[in-house]
Amino acid sequence: RFCLPLVLASLPTMATGEEVAPALQDSWGDFWLFRFFVNAAGYASIVVPGFLLIQYFKRRNYLETGRGICFPVIKSCVFGSEVKSAHQDDGSLPLRAESTESSTARQVFKLLFCAAGLQASYLTWGVLQERVMTRTYGATETDPGEKFQDSQFLVFMNRILAFTVAGLYCALTKQPRHGAPMYKYSFASLSNILSSWCQYEALKYISFPTQVLAKASKVIPVMMMGKLVSRKSYEYWEYLTAALISVGVSMFLLSSSPNRTVSTVTTFSGIVLLAGYIIFDSFTSNWQDALFTYKMSPVQMMFGVNVFSCLFTVGSLLEQGALLESLRFMARHSEFTAHAVLLSVCSACGQLFIFYTINQFGAAVFTIIMTLRQAFAILLSCLIYGHTVTVVGGLGIAVVFMALFLRVYARSRMKKRSKKLPPGETPVQKV
């Protein structure tokens, strides 16, 4: 009874390495780990009753005994049609358009359109993300202004717009018949929310270039999750490129200037949050990969995941009373409102450009474009926000992107070779 308040009061001390003054004892609510558990408790208040309902309907054998007006909804949410495609490619992506049907100039125009759309969407998104999380709003000569603190509200803003765009797209275009139980999207939704939250929170402790390089290194935990979740196997070149990426990221992280004022504990918090982002994001991609065995399009996946993302985030925000506080912050600072809306627009448009690019040109071209986007994002962040990169850090960045391009090249060669395999043989699955 007496230990819990003491532990909570000591959280800011562990976070900053400083003594807590009596007047600041309530500041433990600003510690990221505390906020993480509060958010998780909010999600659990929705997940646990939902889990109990699903188990109740399954024990009652509701699929055979259920009747009434709610039966179609419960069947879709709990049971689905349980019809899976024999091959994942049947439902995960529409067939790529044949380039022979259009001229070379048209294909070049499409490629430039996709590249420009992806670069504009995600470069703008990266710049705004760093602006919102690291700078103040309403600063004057006499007032230092205030920072926006609630990363979960930004996640909610992104997801509500993505949900709207995906819903409109599904309503206006023909989509495959949906067969997956809706509740299965909640797993990817939870990990997606948590990965996005960790991504926003990490910017409070580390620089944006460090975060970009950490994202580039997520192929390592993706491979680990692939082995655990999907039982995948990998080629030697995949392990080699993963090792090169690890070396490059280590060179960058260890090349920090000795005169940096950021505390060791603060840097450690940023690294832990980045690790959380990578782990949660790796689970999301592998779980979605397993869900694509049902006959669905990527936009249906986007819609299903964002339905639960909106439900979880708005529920947690309302329970904490943070939704109204964030709306008041938007009312006080119109500049933040514009940034938050534009951030959400860029995120939703970027997802649509991803689907269109992969549909038209395949995953290899898309990966090259996004790898270039990461390099441009680091350069843009250094120019706008004044981040410094040492020579060793620059070499580390070069090693990372060299490994990424080597990975794309090796994967394309393996795909060409797999097309020549005898009918009875199947190629090794890749990340």
UniProtKB/TrEMBL annotation:
Keywords annotated in UniProt: Membrane, Signal, Transmembrane, Transmembrane helix, Transport
Subcellular location as annotated: Membrane
Coiled coil: none
GO CC, any one term: endoplasmic reticulum membrane
Residues annotated as signal peptide: 1-17
GO MF assignments: 3'-phosphoadenosine 5'-phosphosulfate transmembrane transporter activity
The keyword Lipid biosynthesis appears for this protein: no
Membrane topology: Multi-pass membrane protein
Taxonomic lineage of the native organism: Eukaryota, Metazoa, Chordata, Craniata, Vertebrata
TM ranges: 33-57, 236-255, 261-280, 301-318, 338-356, 363-386, 392-410
Protein name: Adenosine 3'-phospho 5'-phosphosulfate transporter 1
Highest taxon of the lineage: Eukaryota
Keyword Ion transport: no
Pfam families (alphabetical): UAA
Species this protein is from: Nicator chloris
Similarity annotation: Belongs to the nucleotide-sugar transporter family. SLC35B subfamily.
Primary location recorded for the protein, binned into one broad class: membrane
